[in-house]
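idk why but the lab printer keeps eating my pages so im just putting this in chat instead. protein + dioxothiomolybdenum(VI) ion:
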Amino acid sequence: PEAGRARPHESAHLHVAGAAPYIDDLPELVGTLHAALGLSPVAHGVLKAIDVERLKALPGVVAVLTAADIPGPNDCGPIVHDEPILATGHVHYLGQPVFAVIATDRERARRAAAQAKAVLSIDPLPPVLSALEAHAKRQYVLPDMHLVRESAPGALHAALAAAPHRLQGTLSVGGQEQFYLEGQISYACPTENAGLKVHCSTQHPSEMQHLVAHALGWRSNQVQVECRRMGGGFGGKESQSAVFACVASVAAVKLQRPVKLRVDRDDDFLVTGRRHGFEYAWEVGCDDAGRVLAAEVTMVSNAGWSADLSGPVMTRALCHFDNAYWLPEVAMHGHSARTNTQSNTAFRGFGGPQGAIAIEVILDSVARRLGLDPLAVRRANFYGTTSNNVTPYGQQVDDNVIAPLVDTLAASSDYAARRAAVAAYNAASPVLKKGLALTPVKFGISFNVAHFNQAGALVHIYTDGSVLVNHGGTEMGQGLNTKVAQVVAHELGIAFERVRVSATDTHKVANTSATAASTGSDLNGKAAQDAARQLRERLAALAASMHGGMPEAVRFADDRVHVNGANLDFDALVAQAYAARVQLWSDGFYATPGLHWNRETLQGRPFYYFAYGAAVAEVVVDTLSGEHRLLRADLLHDVGRSLNPAVDIGQVEGAFIQGMGWLTSEELVWHPKTGLLMTHAPSTYKIPTANDCPPVFRTALFENNDNVEDSIHRSKAVGEPPLLLPFSVFLAIRDAVSAVGGHRVDPPLRAPATPEAVLDAIDAVRAAR
Ligand code: MTE
Ligand code: LUZ
Ligand code: MOS
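predcted complex ->
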C-alpha cells in the first residue's frame, strides 16, 4: 500500500539538480520592474518627511511609493490591525519599511532605496529594546494572559508555602531567525479587467490574497495568489510574506506593469521578525523525590513592535509549559512585550518550545538542588495514563505514551551505563567535562485557533487515467505534496507516479488556512482523501453496474480494479466512466472534529491529539574556551503510523539540528543604543552546518499503532514537535557545566549556550562553590 511507504520527496530529484524553480527563477514577463524597500534608519521616531523627488531623480527609478500611495487601508496585520504596510506618523523599529522604490532593474532599485537615511527626516525618540525593559514599563502589544489551575481557590500558594522544598529562579532564552534559504519574494502581475496574479513565497496564500485585496481596496476575487514551493518557510512566511506581497501588488496595479520584490538576506533580517525570545521567573514547590506540588511562572516574550501572531504564540507557550508533566497546582502569566524591534512571529513550534523549555530547566534545577538524578525527577513527574492526566488547560491526555517511549530510548541509548561513564570521565578530566541528558516531548497538534483546522482539495482524473491533485496546503520542503499524493494514490489503488500535485492557488481551493501548526498533511491529506474516495465510489458504482456485484465490494489495487471476479485496467475503467458521463473530478473537505477553546479562560480542548518524543544527548564542554561538541544524539519520536518514514525521519533530524542551533549557536544582538540588529547575515549569525551533526546520530520512529484519534491513516503530525528534542543538548551542556561544581551548584545557563554563555555559567558555578 502507498500509505506508509518510504519514498523520496516528490521534488528531490529537482532540488538536488538545481532544477526546482523558485519564484525568482520563473521567466519574467516583458516590462517587469523591480522594487526595493527603503527602511527606517532609526529604531523609534516621528516621521516628518520623505524627499521623494530626490529618489525619483536617481538612475533607473520609475516610481516611489509611500503610505499615501496605498489605495486601501494601510494595514497588513494578520489578526490585530496594528501594522502599516509602509510607515506613517511614527517609525517603530530600525528596518521598518517606509517607502518603496520601483526601478528598471533590481540593482538600481536597491541603490536608490539605500538612500533612506538621506531622504528621511525623522525626529528620534528613545527606543525600548528589551522585553524586560518593556515589561517594567508595562508596554505590551496585547492584554496579559493567565492560565491557572488550582484544586481549590488559594491552593497554589498554600502548596508552595507547605512544600518540603521551595525553589525560585529565572531563565533567559533567545529568539531565532528562520533562515529559509529562499528569502522573502513576491512577483505581482496585472491581469485583465482589474485583476492581479501574485506569485508569492508564502505559507498562507489565502491570507496574502485577502491582504493584497484589502490594500488595493479590491475584492478577493480580483486577486490570485500562487505558490508552487518555498525554499523553506519555518513559520517565517506564515504572516510576514504580507508586506512584500502588498508592496509589489500596489506598485504593479499603480504602474500596470509586473513588479517583483525580492529582498536580500540583510534586509530580510532587518525587516521581518522571528522566534520570540522569552524571559522567565519561576517558583516551584516539590517533595523529596522532586515531584512538583505547585508551580508558578511568569513569561515575558519579546513581541517586537506589533502584535502579529504573538497572541497565539503566547497561548501555545502557556499550553506547553506542562510538557510531559502533571502539575497539580499551577499558575502561568504571559506578557507579550512591545519593543522597538522587528515584530516576532511564527517559528517551528510556535511558542511551544519556549513554554516547554522552562519546565525542563526547572526540573533540572530541582534535580541539581536536591541532589537527584534529572531523569529520575522527570519520570517522577510524568503525566499518568489513568489519573494525573489533565492538562492545566483542561484537556485530558488520553494518548500518553511518554513513559514507555522514554523507557525504550533509555534502553536503546544505554543511558544508565553512559551516565556512569560520563561521571568517571569527569572525575579524571579537569578541563574537558562531559554532560548527558534525556528530555521528553509532548506537543499538541491542531491550530490553537479552532476554526483554522479545516482544509479543502480537488482531485482530477483525466481520461488517460492520470491524476492531478490540488489542495490548500503549501510545499516548503517538508514533503506535504509527497504525502498528499501518496494518500490519493492509496485511495485509488494506483501507482504514485500517476499522481501529480499542482501549485497551491487561491483560484482552486478557497479560504485555506496557513500551512502551519504541523497540520498540513493531517488536514489536506484528509481533504484529498475525501475527494479521492468520492471518485473511487463513482468508479466502483460504474464497475459494479457493468460487471455485477456490490459497489462496496469493488477493490482498487496495483492499477487494477477487481469487481465480481473480473479484473479491469484502471485506465480502461476511467475511459468508460468518461464515455458514461461520470464526473471524473471531485472536491474534498475536512474539519478536525471535537475541538473547542475558550479564549477568555484558556480552557478547552485545543488539540486533536499529542505527539511524543524523547532524545538523549551527550556533549563535551571545554571549560577554558566555553566551546562544546555534541558527541552523540539518540532520538525516538512518535509519528503514529508514519505516512512516509523517509520523509518523517528527515523532518525529525532537521528539526533536531534546527532546534539545537536555536539553543546553542544562533544569537541575536541588537545594538544597545541604536537598536540595529547587528547579527543580520551569516557572517555574524551562526546557524548549524552539516559539520555540527553529531558523529553518532541515531533517529528512530516509535512503534505506535494506536493513535486514539482518526487522523489520516492514523499518522501523526511531525513538522514541529521534534524541534523540542534538542532540549537534551542544552541540558547536557548544563550537566557538563554543573560537573564543574561537582553537581553541587545549579548553573545559571542562558540560551543560546554560546561559548560566552557557557563561560559565564562556569564562572558563576565556581564563585558559588
Ligand atoms: N520542513 C522544511 N523542509 N521546510 C520548512 O519550512 N517548516 C516547518 C515544518 N517542517 C518546514 C519544515 C514548520 S514551521 C511547519 S508548521 C511544518 O513543517 C508545516 O508543514 P506540515 O504541516 O505539512 O508538516
Ligand atoms: N496557532 C497555532 C496559530 O497553534 N499555530 C499556528 O501556526 C497559528 N497560526 C496562526 C494562528 N494561530
Ligand atoms: Mo509552523 S511555525 O506552524 O509555520
